[in-house]
Amino acid sequence: MTGNKRSEIKKGLKVKIVQKKDQRSGELTEGIVKRILTNSAAHPHGIKVMLESGKVGRVKEIKGEI
User: Which parts of the chain are beta strand (E)?
Assistant: First the structure.
């Protein structure tokens, strides 16, 4: 699953995000969703979330429940 639809993402879900600083390299950061920051139902580049670590980025992969 990709992270383009808000309905697919919930708090506590394990995901991989791309942070703003890593957009060129495409480096992904794995973590647990703390907050969903995108208000719209969908976004072509991925739904923006905050991880429990405090890092913010757009969801590129959904790994599943923890």
Answer: 13-19, 28-36, 48-51, 56-65
* Residue 21 exposure: Cα atoms within 13 Å on the Cβ side: 3
Domain boundaries, position 49 = 6-65
Distances in Å between the Cα of 14 and the Cα atoms of 10, 24, 64 are 9, 23, 5
| Residue given tokens 């429940």 in the structure block | 65
Mean pLDDT over each residue of the chain, to the nearest integer? 94
**Predicted TM-score of the model (pTM):** 0.91
Q: What is the CATH number of the domain that holds 22?
A: 2.30.30
* Tokens linked to 12: 């506590």
Q: 24-46, pLDDT tens digit by residue?
A: 999 999 999 999 999 999 999 99
